[in-house]
Write a structure and sequence with these properties.
The chain has helices at about 10-20, 50-65, 70-85, 115-120, 130, 140-145, 155-165, 200-220, 220-225, 235-245, 250-260, 265-275, 280-290, and strands spanning about 35-40, 40-45, 90-95, 105-110, 140, 170-180, 185-190. It is an alpha+beta fold and about 300 residues long. The chain starts with 7 loop residues before the first helix and ends with a helix.
């Protein structure tokens, strides 16, 4: 069956079709198999999996407002995800402190032992799905993030991380960033077995990611709120230029030639950046900058 490309208007039309009187939408095919809808301003087609997923998400979105405890939100969320085909998830705040080596967790359910392995191997420093958050404002598949770093010096280690993740049962998945006025606030990561989402399902999950993130943030206790304080890091335009070139794999000599500066000056900028980002070395400074959204 041919899959349609959905726009925001089409999504609005579909939502209207779900809530419209029975004589308004036209559904071709048995429920939960496939079909099309038509409203006064548009139409679209969907598969059975899409119909089920969309229905679950659209029912759950308004129900989130009625939940009062983080445990309730997580339990209901996990039920919806499992019915959509996803066994595991994590809702994370973005790093707010340069010294953090793991993302503050609002809710998570990962395979037994994966969290410990992830931290022990320091995968947070090279995780392609997390690094790709700095490049995308929309949800993406894990494999899409890995493909974006084909020439990265850490590519072999990234491949090892993805292979190990599959051994733990994380064979495929998606990440949905949550943005605010100041940039990236956090993200939702879901995974497990291979599930292919349509563009419209991706959009619905983006809405769910933001809703879940904001709800769990509102319910977070005072200690979590303090962890969410924004680090006050003031970086100059020239420091950002040096940092971006360093993130692209350039050496001090190459950066000095590119910017018309002496190597001594470039090294001075890098020393200042390491102090500001509380980084142990240049590689750590780049990792921290990626997590803070300073470079992409």
């Amino acid at each position: 069956m041919r899959v349609a490309i959905f726009t925001t208007d089409t999504i609005a039309n579909f939502i209207s079709a779900l809530s419209a009187p029975l004589d308004e939408p036209v559904l071709n095919g048995a429920p939960h198999t496939s079909g099309c809808f038509r409203t006064g301003s548009g139409s679209g087609c969907f598969t059975g999996h899409f119909l089920m997923t969309a229905s679950l998400l659209l029912q759950f979105l308004p129900a989130i407002d009625e939940l009062r405890r983080p445990a309730e939100v997580t339990a209901e969320f996990e039920t919806v995800l499992q019915r959509c085909g996803f066994d595991f998830h994590g809702v994370f705040r973005r790093h707010r402190s340069a010294g953090e080596m793991t993302h503050p967790v609002l809710s998570a359910r990962w395979p037994a032992g994966w969290g410990e392995t992830y931290v022990e191997r320091k995968y947070v420093l090279i995780d392609p799905t997390v690094r790709y958050l700095g490049r995308s404002r929309h949800g993406f598949r894990w494999q899409e993030a890995l493909a974006a770093f084909a020439g990265d010096p850490h590519r072999k280690r990234m491949d090892r991380m993805m292979v190990e993740a599959r051994i733990f049962g994380l064979k495929d998945g998606y990440i949905f960033p949550v943005h605010g006025r100041t940039g990236l606030l956090g993200f939702l990561s879901i995974g497990g077995q291979q599930v292919s989402l349509t563009s419209m399902e991706m959009t619905l999950f983006e809405g769910l990611a933001k809703k879940i993130f904001l709800k769990l943030s509102d319910l977070a206790g005072p200690q979590d709120a303090r962890c969410d304080a924004v680090a006050d890091v003031q970086v100059t335009r020239r420091e950002l230029e040096v940092l971006q070139h360093l993130a692209e794999g350039m050496t001090s000599n190459e950066i000095s030639a590119e910017l018309g500066l002496s190597r001594h000056t470039v090294d001075w900028y890098m020393s200042a950046l390491q102090d500001k980002l509380q980084a142990r070395n240049r590689h750590h400074a780049v990792a921290v900058a990626f997590r803070m959204g300073l470079v992409s």
